[in-house]
Specification:
The chain is α/β, with parallel strands linked by helices. Helices cover 35% and strands 15% of the residues. The protein has 15 helices and 14 strands. It has a seven-stranded parallel sheet with strand order 3-4-2-5-6-1-7, sandwiched between helices. A seven-stranded parallel sheet has the order 10-11-9-12-13-8-14. 38% of the residues are buried. GO terms for molecular function: ATP binding; hydrolase activity; nucleic acid binding; RNA helicase activity. Its EC number is 3.6.4.13.
């Protein structure tokens, strides 16, 4: 079943085409018709199965009709990383709709969130704690809410968010369409589903299995050495078509630029590209114009290329299911493929989760001749800019003529300082140099 059969609004179809989506995943094929028909939904699916688009596309379609600048759809997620991922999907799929979507979570300044809410948005993707703060302070209006999604409900339960969820639900209109997605269904989540879902439809997809034709390897490395190591891997590996995954749009762009400077035919695929440039990057990767494509998880979802010889995880994914989804783009059509993952010390827990999913330990490798001892730059970022010179650097003083004979004592007396005064800073600056803000 192609996406055309869902009869989405033309502006939503434009977003689907821009991302290169052609055939829906199993959960999309099952869930989208039920959501479009107005049913509440219970979805049992892991991350990496396409469930974000399964609810994002019907939401965008519905919001094309009706008022603007009102919060009409609310998605609640357990972590800020997932909230950003969902919001990116909303913005990318809805790039032609002019619908506004924002994230709301703690740990960041609340004022920009309040300002965006005042200016009017249609979609809010929120974590429970900060959303409750906005509700209690009266900085968010949910009286016009039509659609509610609870994503990764079992993770929210594990993190102790269920009491917050129940508090939030008391402030939402009773007449709404509700969707609940969970990878597992413990008793507490079943109880919550009974409370909030009205005669729900249920969809379930099996866990994604790793391809037997893919070999796996881990490359331990410090964060600031990832780009040099990537260059060495590409230099010493016989590759055909390479797909590189990064965690952020900024990093995808910068890695793509550095590969181009190194002489590779490379392109990046990330949310800040125009539709034409995005399509050109995907088409170029499919037809071999680009040997390397650097992408984020969301941007790469529409890629279906049978000739990918290597998947390189510049950044490890957030879940083991996402890892399986990434590496599933190589080793297709009975061909062998390789999955390389660069890992730092902070990735230990995720590595163990991936190994549990694979049912085996992953080989650790090093690149012969690569210098792993290079120290990190001042900023712990492999893309750190060199520090700028201080803005208020004092000018060098002009040499003063020596006083005439007999005037030395008078000049010395005039220039003397009171006893106990502190010496001036080196260079004659009157004020300590201000610390430069990180860029």
């Amino acid at each position: 079943m192609p996406f055309q059969q869902f009869s989405f609004h033309p502006k939503v179809v434009a977003g689907i085409n821009a991302l290169g989506y052609t055939t829906p995943t199993p959960i999309q094929a099952q869930a989208i018709p039920k959501i479009m028909a107005g049913h509440d939904l219970m979805g049992l699916a892991q991350t990496g199965t396409g469930k974000t688009a399964a609810f994002a596309l019907p939401i965008l379609h519905r919001l094309m009709q009706g008022p603007r600048k009102q919060v009409r759809a609310l998605v609640i997620a357990p972590t800020r990383e997932l909230a950003e991922q969902i919001n990116d999907a909303m913005l990318e799929l809805g790039q032609q709709t002019r619908l506004k979507s924002i994230t709301v979570y703690g740990g960041v300044n609340v004022n920009p969130q309040i300002e965006k809410l005042k200016n009017g948005v249609e979609i809010v993707v929120a974590c429970p704690g900060r959303l409750l703060d906005h509700i209690n302070q009266g900085t968010i209006d949910l009286t016009n809410l039509e659609l509610l999604v609870l994503d990764e409900a079992d993770q929210m339960f594990d993190m102790g968010f269920l009491p917050d969820i129940r508090r939030i639900l008391k402030h939402l209109p009773a007449q709404r369409q509700t969707m609940l997605f969970s990878a597992t269904m413990p008793a507490e989540i079943r109880g919550l589903a009974r409370e909030i879902l009205r005669d729900p439809a249920t969809v379930q997809v099996d866990n994604v299995a790793p391809a037997a034709t893919v070999s796996h390897a881990l490359y331990p490395v410090a964060q600031h050495l990832k780009t040099p190591l990537l260059m060495q891997l590409l230099k010493h590996t016989d590759t055909d078509s390479v797909l590189i995954f990064t965690r952020t749009k900024h990093r995808a762009k910068r890695v793509g630029e550095q590969l181009e400077k190194a002489g590779y035919t490379a392109a990046s695929l990330q949310g800040n590209l125009s539709q034409n440039r995005r399509q050109a990057a995907m088409d170029g990767f499919r037809n071999g114009t680009y040997q390397i494509l650097v992408a984020t998880d969301i941007a790469a979802r529409g890629i279906d290329v049978s000739q990918v010889s290597h998947v390189i995880n510049y950044d490890i994914p957030d879940t083991s299911e996402a890892y399986i989804h990434r590496i599933g783009r190589t080793g297709r059509a009975a061909r062998n493929g390789d999955a390389f993952t660069m890992v730092t010390d902070e990735d230990t827990l995720m590595v163990k989760a991936i190994e549990r999913t694979l049912g085996a330990a992953i080989e650790r490798r090093t690149v012969e001749g690569f210098d792993y001892s290079v120290p990190a730059p001042r900023k712990d970022d492999e893309f750190a800019r060199p520090p700028r010179p201080p803005r208020n650097q004092p000018k060098a003083k002009k040499p003063q003529p020596k006083p005439a004979a007999g005037q030395g004592a008078a000049h010395a007396a005039a220039g003397s300082k009171p006893s106990g005064s502190k010496p001036a800073p080196a260079g004659g600056a009157r004020h300590p140099q201000r610390t430069q803000r990180p860029r």
